[in-house]
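Q: I have 169 residues here and want to know how they pack in 3D. Can you give me a structure?
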Amino acid sequence: MKRWIGTTVLTAATFVAILSQLIPANPTQASANGDQRVKAALDKMGWKYEIDQDGDFKVVLKMKDERTQRAFIRSKTDSLKGLEVRQIVSPGYVAQGELSADVANQLLKASNKTKVGAWQVVQGEKRSVALFAAKVDANLKPEDLEVALMVTLYSADAMEKQLTGKDDF
């Protein structure tokens, strides 16, 4: 737990800054209380969560092997021809500078195998963050949101373990 908190402190500011660059301005605005549809779904599923200053929902999953993985369910949504889309993201890898070609290829290959979501990279001034992101209908039923959330969490944790052997997220 102490290691997780220490790592969180070191990476949280960078992650939040990069995450905010990742997600473009959205037509729907979230309140500080978060999207009530997400809140209701998480409450129905019995998930514990925190709501950050942007109104996004942060969840942490404890894995069977004592690892943890966190994800963020965005309250803000995007619209495309009447389809309202929400992102669920989970960090899996942080590199100083740009990703190596080897890591980028591993992420692309892993994306090809997933049914929901894919890897995306957010480039900051000094770091690159690889996020597993599921882009889903903003009005998913709670059980379908949980499936997308679990795919996101497990995909990000598996890649983190494969690439680093660490449990930073």
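Q: Anything worth noting?
A: Residues 1-27 have pLDDT under 50 and may be disordered. The chain has four helices and seven strands.
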